[in-house]
Design goal:
Helix content: over 70%
Structural class: mainly alpha
Number of helices: 4
Radius of gyration: 21 Å
Number of strands: 0
Strand content: under 5%
Largest sheet: none
Order of helices and strands: HHHH
Length: 86
């Protein structure tokens, strides 16, 4: 039984180590997937800056926390177009 526990602990540690190394890459993939929506909402420059900061590990998290505390985005959405008269 002791060998089974050691093998399980070894496998768990190895998996944890591998996952912690891949977390920045996973965050970058999610940020790039959101690039299209950010560009549509904010425009090219603001959307690219927003996504670029979100891509950087720890910086993106700090930016999101600061935006939650402030209650608004650092890069606001572009203004909605005025409705066309009929």
């Amino acid at each position: 039984m002791a060998v089974v526990k050691q093998v399980g602990r070894y496998a768990g540690n190895k998996l944890t180590r591998r996952l912690t190394r891949s977390i920045p890459w996973i965050g970058a993939v999610f940020a790039l997937a959101a690039l299209g929506g950010a560009v549509r909402r904010k425009g090219w420059v603001r959307g690219a800056l927003h996504t670029g900061l979100d891509c950087i590990p720890y910086v993106g998290g700090a930016k999101n926390v600061a935006e939650m505390v402030r209650g608004r985005d650092f890069f606001p959405d572009k203004p909605a177009p005025a409705p066309t008269p009929r």
